[in-house]
């Protein structure tokens, strides 16, 4: 509670900031008035159709990435497990890109998040097989690097072969992520799939706590490990898939957020889940605001900022592991 | 009343038999020491009894659904791994997982009791990753105690503890047995096993080769054939057994 | 301009007209096809045959198409290469070092560049008379379609990824001669750049010009179906432009000018 409340306040503040900051200079009162009452044509359009979906997606994508990072780390008992770094987000991108380029999305819009879910799901399942719980950091990183590279390369290949001249330019988006110019359509596309993921991961807390003691102890405490694994795989796939389908692959959020918040909740994986969701939302909202403040006319990618902030954390973690091993 | 019932329990890894047709019953009030050389199958026996490895034959616990089994028997694995920097109290509290989703007053009581029994009361707020090896081992034992099950299975619980805590831990297990619960623990230290257990089961090559009162089981012939050692025996407030030398 | 002429003086123009000309840039392709004698132009770039980019697909049909690689061009043994100042710098530099004469043409930024470019390429090809005739025709055509009123109607170009054309561009100049105010330029965009959708919404232009979608799917084109843009379009006049008409400063640009003049007429009673 003492962690959740301040975080919730921070998320609300950042959400409000995301609504109020943008390239079009609109006064504070005018924008809030337009958002709530729907009066004032152009301002309403900006607030309701452009800024609101963007802020909502920042909240949703961030919460999804934070939550799935915490769940994956809890299950693998490895603080380096991060959807973006170990290939889950890139695989989701690949799924989304294939669905777009085959024309599936044009026929059936929900195919976009579902295909991304499929890509993410296959990659999580593969990672769990290659570097199961307690499989060690080395196996996880090796498998993750291979998977990231493969998924990234195939995404680039599919986009390069597209007859559309813009597809090629989108490689950066799919690998770095952005919330620019998204609409409520994307919110509705992602929301149900994310809700499914949250529902699945929300119930894993007790199992993840028990896994703190290792698989045998967790099983002896009555935790059905096969079911727990299925819940984590599907939950992470749904969250990362839906987030990536609408915002591209945003890295490092699932790494930095649980890492920063873990000491505050006494290390317990179950307590880390809701807190990481809030923390992730705060980080992505803040990063998205920064892209608009730093270079409003440049469509700076989200992943650029999260990586600049996140990479040093990654180095620190590895450094700590090395020292721990000595 | 039988707390654990194994009949013709066999485990094979690939084509290699690890356990061969083991039959064993443990009753309330017993502290069974599982002894045997490295590779005898002690760990596999404990895991198979709980249904954590695929096996043939009958194991009363592995037939139970997960949560029901967890309220029947607690298990202390040999590896002392803790993945996250939780507090000692939170670690011990994991023993209450099978008893319901939310921690109730009785759960907190069980945790306090277990901490006290393992001499960890003043450590309760400490981060487990900052504990010494022995302190961590005791915290993990306390977790098993907090589970408050009729039966307790422990894989080498006293390895790595200092003499005082080794004796104390064995005494805790013996007290539990005396209070009507059952304990099965694999133990390498034959002296501790002989002195504190109510019964010893000797495993060798995946078979039970002896089963009975400690000093009768650990006779010269068994020590020679199973362990390849000879030992000194005495009585001083209970049985004393001290391994002396390796037989040629 | 001076630099080009200077280049011509020291290069090929003093000698006889070049007989093996290779063009590696879409705009020089089309200028050369308008000006060259039959057989004089050996090869044009592959874009000249792409209907999405070129207005002279038929003229390009049957010609040798190149992709502008130095090796490929050199093996054609050209006596003159026509290139754009921004196309394939490395290839152009390499060709120069190999002793091939290269004439470079900057992109057209305003309608007045069209006669200048016609003359420059005409001079390079030794077709000055043909160039003058086309210049006269172009100037007359422009006078015929231009809208004389002071610009008053706001228009905005909106392309995939929120890209717009602002001040100092050919498209901007076309708007100004057809009675429009370029909303992109008003919003502070110079050259090509991104106009955030919410700024476009706040400007609320009376005409929105978007490019026709390309085949295949792309996320970049999603923005052209954004609900906020749909609302703007419902209120404003909308026009789909054919990219090919707008790309190069060649006489065909008059088609784009005429189209915008017609749009202006429709918007003003």
From TrEMBL, chain A:
Family under the similarity heading: Belongs to the binding-protein-dependent transport system permease family. FecCD subfamily.
GO cellular component terms attached to this protein's record: plasma membrane
Superkingdom assignment: Bacteria
Organism: Gemmobacter megaterium
Topology of the protein relative to the lipid bilayer: Multi-pass membrane protein
Main location: membrane
Pfam families membership: FecCD
A molecular-function term among this protein's GO annotations: transmembrane transporter activity
Keywords: Cell membrane, Membrane, Transmembrane, Transmembrane helix, Transport
Keyword Transmembrane: yes
Subcellular location: Cell membrane
UniProt name for this protein: Iron complex transport system permease protein
PANTHER family according to UniProt: ABC TRANSPORTER PERMEASE PROTEIN MJ0876-RELATED (PTHR30472:SF25), FERRIC ENTEROBACTIN TRANSPORT SYSTEM PERMEASE PROTEIN (PTHR30472)
Matching InterPro entries: ABC_BtuC-like, ABC_transptr_permease_BtuC
Residue intervals passing through the bilayer: 53-72, 114-131, 138-163, 183-202, 232-257, 269-290, 302-319
GO terms (BP aspect): siderophore-iron import into cell
From TrEMBL, chain B:
Keyword annotations of the record: ATP-binding, Nucleotide-binding, Translocase, Transport
Keyword DNA damage: no
SUPFAM superfamilies (alphabetical): P-loop containing nucleoside triphosphate hydrolases
Bilayer-crossing regions: none
Domain ABC transporter residues, every copy: 4-230
Pfam families, alphabetized: ABC_tran (PF00005)
Gene3D superfamilies: P-loop containing nucleotide triphosphate hydrolases
Molecular-function annotations in GO: ATP binding; ATP hydrolysis activity
Known role: Part of the ABC transporter complex HmuTUV involved in hemin import. Responsible for energy coupling to the transport system.
Name of the protein: Iron complex transport system ATP-binding protein
Species, as recorded: Gemmobacter megaterium
Lineage, opening ranks: Bacteria, Pseudomonadati, Pseudomonadota, Alphaproteobacteria, Rhodobacterales
TrEMBL record, chain C:
UniProt entry tagged with the keyword rRNA-binding: no
Assigned keywords, A-Z: Signal
Organism listed in the record: Gemmobacter megaterium
Highest taxon above the source species: Bacteria
Xref: PROSITE patterns: FE_B12_PBP
Domain Fe/B12 periplasmic-binding: 20-269
Name by which UniProt lists this protein: Iron complex transport system substrate-binding protein
InterPro entries for this protein: ABC_Transporter_SBP, ABC_transptr_periplasmic_BD
Gene3D superfamilies on file: Nitrogenase molybdenum iron protein domain
Endpoints of the signal sequence: 1-16
